[in-house]
Amino acid sequence: MPIDAAKAVAAEPRTGEIAWNHKDVQLYHLGLGAGIPATDPDELRYTLESRLHVLPSFATVAGAGSPGVISGLSMPGVDVDLARVLYGGQTVRLHRPIPAEGTATATGRIAAVYDKGKAAILVMRTEVADAEGPLWTNDAQIFVRGEGGWGGDRGPSTRLEAPTGPPDRTVERPIREDQALLYRLSGDWNPLHADPEFAKLAGFERPILHGLCTYGMTLKAVVDTLLGGDVARVRSYTTRFAGVVFPGETLRIRMWRRDGGVRVAVSAVERDDAPVLADTIVDHT
Q: Which residues belong to the active site?
């Protein structure tokens, strides 16, 4: 079997230095569609360096997303075909607000390997800290088709019961035709998001939007709509990637208030509300 679960989890973590500045943060926010209208005071907190607040999902791209998924797939005990790999889910836990500029140490490891029968799930954890202490923890769930069935731990279920009742708020966010081209400048250079020929080889009619771009756009909508624009209120943010988004489409983001959190469901308007993000929770103060 290409994945040796015990060896992967026991492998030494990989540590490296990462750095970012206000330009990286502004570029990330622009890649999420921030800045429309350009002079709106609520948007300037994402685009103007003198007022800059950092959306917590920036943690997924800080330091150009290093150490990233590709690094994790080369860890000891892991030898998989990238064509079988899907991004299954993402969680960011904030220990304190992310500064607009910083240098930090990122430590990445495989925290768990789960046997789902016809597939394996790798939980790739990255912990980031600076001189003042922990900043954030990222957990990326990587779904590897055809690599399960060895009788290992199935892991916890990530499926949640659907929210009940009408949503407290529903907003729609358009995806620009060039949005994937802009978002990829934050560090995800996968040609799946830019090259039509590569996208067809991967089974898509045209390039798709990065799942983590949808992830960031959704958090921005929740912060702007239900948290008064205060990024510091976010404590954690988790989702399961349930479907793709194509540039030019529209996201429909439904939000339900819960004690200390917001449940969210995201769909693609033009494809009969096809699910995009599911089992999504924003925990906040």
A: 188, 193
